[in-house]
Amino acid sequence: MRAFLRSVPALTGHHTWPTSSGQNTSTCSYNDRAFSSSIEVLTEANLEAANVTAYCDALRIVGQRGDPVAYEPTIVVGTYRLEKEQMLNLSVVGYVLGQLQNKPPAMGCLITLGGECHRVNLQPMYKTVSSILERIRGWDGDPPAEPPPVVLNKHCPYCPFKSVCSRQAEEADDLSLLDHMTSKAIRRYHSKGIFTVKQLSFLFKPRRRRRRRAAQPPHFDLEIQALAIRTGKIYIRTVPEIQKSDIELFLDIEGIPDQRVSYLVGLLVRDHETLTHHAFWAETTEEEESIWRMFIEKAEEYPDAPIYHYGSYEVRAIESLAKRCGTDAKCLSKRLVNLNSQVYGKVYFPVRSNSLKVLGKFLGASWTAPDASGLQSLVWRYRWEMAGEAAYKQKLISYNAEDCQALRILTEKLARLQTDADSELNVDYVDRPKQNATRLGSELHTALDHVLLYASFDHPKGRISFRPETDTAKRKGPGAPKGHQAYERTVPAGRRTVIQVASKRTCPKHKEEYLQKKPGKDAEIVIVDLSFANTGCRKTVIKYAGEERYCQRCHRFYEPPIIKRIRGQTFGHGFRVWAVYQRIVLRLPYRVITQAMEELFHETASMASIINFVESFAAYYRRTESILVKRLLESPFVHVDETRLSIDGVDQYVWVFSDGRHVVFRLTETRETAIVREILRGYQGVLVSDFYAGYDALDCRQEKCWVHLIRDLNEDLWKFPFDEELQEFVSGVKDLIVPIIEAIDRWGLKARHLRRFKKQVDRFYQTVIEGREYGLDATKTYQKRFVRYRESLFRFLDEDGIPWNNNTGERAIRHLAVQRKISGRLYQRGAVDYLVLLGIAQTCRFQEKSFLKFLLSKEIDVDRFQSAKRIKISKPINREPQL
């Protein structure tokens, strides 16, 4: 503090003013006289205004001479880095100071232990301060009849009442006992009537395991953790992957995070059955490089050994030490194995926290000091630095060695779970719980399963035995496993049309060589097709016949070109169009399409044949999709939306792009917006979308969907029906948007009629968004949303023709959502081809054209295709009386 005061130019020195008692004290309450005296620096000030008291180390005048006197607060903190709580404390001082000088200071100063002065912008935090003080005043004016419930949080380790609160929470079996339980999750469970950990444990139900899973980050499930605590079992969602070796290293680094200093590197070496602990101790920060190099040398003695650690602190410390000491730690980093990544969301131990201390104690590890923790290690280091007592140094080294031992025990346990999980009674699986049975029970289960199998409808009779050793299902024999039904094509009998086709005249290799006729060498092929008319369709059988010609130089026969082109085809273009139409527009499964073919046209085909039809049409219409993308980029606006779709049991995402006339679909494995950026590269129009945060990074003008916002508001209004604050907020939104929608309904999306609402928008933000503080989390979320998307929520007020909702995108993708309900999932082979044709079908639908007739026409451009007028199914009735 003195160093800072000396750095201030032209100071008048240390000033104190008398309090109301008339006595001078070192810490004073400043009055109006102090602030009007224009003293440049006031120190050790107790400020009081509006029943709020705040302490400030120094007040310093800011601004030019002649301006009204305005002070800026300065607080000295006991850390080297700034914390959020310190900035909040400074903003409280600024709030009280603003009440005294009628102008809140815009900036403040925090001085850290290193003497560095950090200027903090206070204006964004005044709203938070006002909200906190308002809540405290409410408690003070109307004290609650009962004390608030005990809720454990991350600040508990620093609190002197930790033991008392922990005891009360354990007696109540409170949800906050779980380390990963947040206040938001607590409120969500309370709304469901769940108040204890035991109640929470009954919420978990094993789900049916998918055949394949997409690579997703692990998710921690509080319900499984509660289940593990209630049953006392270890639950495995994903089997840990620990590569055991004869030599293993276990690393634990002690440091002072606030100063970014590491003073102790502990390394436990397990060489076969021998354990050796190495402690590299730094007396001062200057010795930090020395212990780093000693650690590197020791680790390089075992170049192939993995280095186990727990958490991310060691990784950050190694990167920081390598950077400061100018060494290359890439090889060392590749050997690091974070055990926390093998536990988090994958293995659930019956404990309340995944910290190394809690897991270690559960597995049998112990610590000499009963209060051993990372926070306590900072206290020991501080006392050693102050007093230099060897006892504190020994405590730190022992604590580090015991941490390394706990790492070794945890590693061995995870390795055993890989091999012994099926046989251990206290271990179970999350997705597929164990079914324990005796030997006799297993035989009974097998016999009963065979009975159920025999009773199934499609099981072949006579192929089952109730003796496991003679079960034909387990007998291996020749032949491949059963797959798709195969068909041998028979020539359709009955009436047919015969078309004589021209033979090939010249040899394709020898252009000057004419092909010769050979008697008896005829070529023919029979095609089953559908002929479409205005009144319906009928099946036709067409026989293409012609002569094969012989080349004397090639010594081979050549078929007529038409027969060669359609060779291998059984169904004609019309029949294939019908099948594709059934799949794309009518959403029929492949199996149902084959059944319809057999019942309607007496033709059989496999499901693979229908898939081949879709693939061939998708390949032909790739040019059409490219044209649609080009037309989209020429549009003044583009709607975009996405939905989840199961592909072979793995969730992927389908994206739709539409301008109201053209529709394009894309399939991606993740929800990343790279595909949107690729499609809309160079787009100069407006993107209409929902509030998915991935769209925010796109470099184009945007309009957010008001329908999504109104749906969310309506749902939360039903969720909190008696919350007056939320009702008042939604009322403000309603008063703003309803007149705008009425104007759109009357005048359309014309900017000249909508710009007049911009004043109402500004007034709405001043009174409802920026001028108020809210207590309900839902209202705060909407407040932040309005602030974040102020420009993109009202884009339609400034530009002609920009939609205020994303209903067009939802309408385009709704067909796929219905298909998802029918089919459940799609196959990877035909998914992309299906989406190509679905985009063309939706384009025809938006342009009121027949997708069936478009396919029959073999046209490429949907916009140029002229479809016949739709059939009128009704006509107006003349109700005039006849004379």
List the helices and strands and how they pair.
Blueprint: H1 2-7, E1 28-29, H2 32-36, E2 41-49, E3 52-61, E4 71-76, H3 84-101, E5 107-111, E6 117-121, H4 126-141, H5 162-172, H6 183-191, H7 197-201, H8 222-231, E7 234-236, E8 247-256, E9 261-271, E10 274-281, H9 288-300, E11 307-309, H10 313-325, H11 330-335, E12 336-338, H12 340-343, E13 347-348, H13 356-363, H14 374-387, H15 390-420, E14 427-429, H16 439-455, E15 497-500, E16 516-533, E17 536-551, E18 556-558, H17 561-566, H18 573-584, H19 590-601, H20 607-620, H21 622-633, E19 637-647, E20 650-658, E21 663-668, H22 674-679, E22 686-689, E23 701-704, H23 706-719, H24 724-747, H25 751-754, H26 758-769, H27 777-788, H28 790-793, H29 807-823, H30 828-846, H31 851-857
Parallel strand pairs: 1-2, 4-5, 7-14, 8-11, 11-12, 15-17, 19-22, 22-23
Antiparallel strand pairs: 2-3, 3-4, 5-6, 7-13, 8-9, 9-10, 16-17, 17-18, 19-20, 20-21
Helix pairs in contact: 13-15, 14-15, 18-20, 18-31, 19-20, 20-30, 24-26
Q: What would your notes on this structure say?
A:
- The protein is globular.
- Helix 18 (573-584) packs antiparallel against helix 31 (851-857), helix 19 (590-601) packs across helix 20 and helix 24 runs antiparallel to helix 26 (758-769).
- The strands form five sheets. The chain has a six-stranded mixed β-sheet with strand order 1-2-3-4-5-6, covered by helices on one side. Strands 10-9-8-11-12 form a five-stranded mixed β-sheet, with helices on both faces.
- It folds into six domains: 2-139, no CATH class; 247-420, Nucleotidyltransferase, domain 5, CATH 3.30.420; 439-470; 497-570, no CATH class; 577-703 and 808-857, no CATH class; 706-805, no CATH class.
- Helices cover 41% and strands 18% of the residues.
- It has 883 residues and is of the alpha/beta class.
- The longest helix has 31 residues, at 390-420.
- Strand 20 (650-658) and strand 21 (663-668) form a beta hairpin.
- It contains 31 helices and 23 strands.
- The model is unreliable at 8-27 and 470-480 (pLDDT under 50).
- The N and C termini lie far apart (108 Å).
